[in-house]
Write a structure and sequence with these properties.
Layout (H helix, E strand, L loop, with lengths): L1 E6 L4 E6 L2 H33 L2 H53 L4 H4 L17 H37 L10 E2 L4 E4 L6 E4 L2 E4 L5 E3 L4 E9 L3 E9 L2 E11 L6 E2 L4 E5 L9 E8 L2 E3 L1 H5 L17
Antiparallel strand pairs: 1-2, 3-6, 4-5, 6-13, 7-12, 8-9, 8-11, 9-10, 10-12, 10-13, 13-14
């Protein structure tokens, strides 16, 4: 390509020859110049007009950026909806954690109100940059994982504590009658024969009609009359553990009844082989009499042994 430039003042012309490569470079340079001018024009005119509220320019700017704003709004709305769903799930898990914490603290003998007290926090404030959306999502994801782990741990703790509490409620650690102990467990002089004899339980001195309570929860396996025991009630507490209440005047339960610790099961009497009103109380492991005082003096909060055969002689 050849360009001829003519100057009227000096009556002389000048020719410029442009090859294909030079022509391409010239066109690219002109395009860059136009882009720079357009950017300057946009900055000076459109942006200023949009900020100052020029009627025509503001309308043009709104038309140009309307789709862009709509896209941003849609993306932001979708992100907010997703975060709201995550927050709803986390809120449900936090409520589950709070309920589990109250139950576990109750089983552990703690005051749930003390557990829920907010811990004190403080220190020097060092400002940092605001969190980005991705960082917020990462923090929420970590909290979700931690809450899942806490729920699993508290659920296991609740089941273990409940199991221990149930086992402890099946141990005869509650005194069955309000009275003082008369004759203890072991060898003694028999009050009828005067010979040395084994006393397989302990006697509680009480008046006729005094209430007799179950020393632990269990199932009534016997409610009958026996020649030496008189009116008697036997309760099976599981794991080969049984309690016997003898010389009763009246029974308030029948065979097959399910009783709980502290439930009234009978009244003190003077039936059978007895010298006066009292309650004869026995604890048997696999049919072998044990010293009931060892059970009654044990702490209720202590976990019972897993195998009651350990208590047998």
């Amino acid at each position: 390509m050849q360009v001829i430039i003519t100057d009227a003042w000096i009556a002389r012309s000048r020719s410029i020859y442009l090859s294909g490569t030079r022509l391409t470079l010239v066109l690219v340079a002109m395009a860059l110049v136009m882009m720079v001018l357009a950017a300057v024009f946009y900055h000076l005119v459109f942006l200023k007009g949009a900020r100052d509220g020029w009627p025509v320019v503001s309308s043009l700017v709104r038309l140009v950026v309307r789709d862009e704003f709509a896209l941003k709004d849609r993306l932001m709305s979708e992100n907010l909806d997703a975060m709201a769903r995550r927050l709803g799930e986390m809120q449900a898990k936090m409520m589950q954690l709070e309920a589990l914490g109250e139950r576990v603290s109750g089983l552990a003998g703690l005051n749930p109100a003390e557990v829920k007290v907010q811990p004190g926090r403080g220190g020097v404030s060092i400002e940092g940059r605001p969190l980005s959306l991705n960082e917020v999502k990462s923090v929420m994801s970590n909290l979700e994982q931690v809450s899942d782990l806490r729920v699993d741990m508290l659920s296991i703790m609740e089941s273990r504590l409940m199991e221990q509490k149930i086992r402890a409620m099946m141990v005869p650690t509650q005194q069955p009658v309000a009275g003082h102990m008369g004759s203890g467990f072991g060898w003694r002089i028999d009050p009828f024969s005067g010979h040395n004899a084994m006393h397989t339980g302990i006697d509680f001195v009480a008046t006729v009609g005094s209430p007799v309570y179950a020393a632990a929860g269990g199932v009534v396996v016997s409610q009958e009359w026996m020649a030496e025991y008189g009116q008697v009630v036997e309760i099976d507490h599981g794991q080969d553990l049984l309690t016997r209440y003898a010389h009763l005047s009246r029974s308030a339960v029948r065979k097959g009844d399910l009783v709980k610790r502290g439930q009234r099961i009978a009244d003190v009497g003077n039936t059978g082989r007895s010298t006066g009103p009292h309650l004869h109380f026995e604890v048997l492991v696999r049919g072998v009499p044990q010293d009931p005082q060892k059970f009654l003096s044990a702490s209720r909060a202590a976990a019972p042994p897993k195998n009651w055969t350990d208590a047998a002689p």
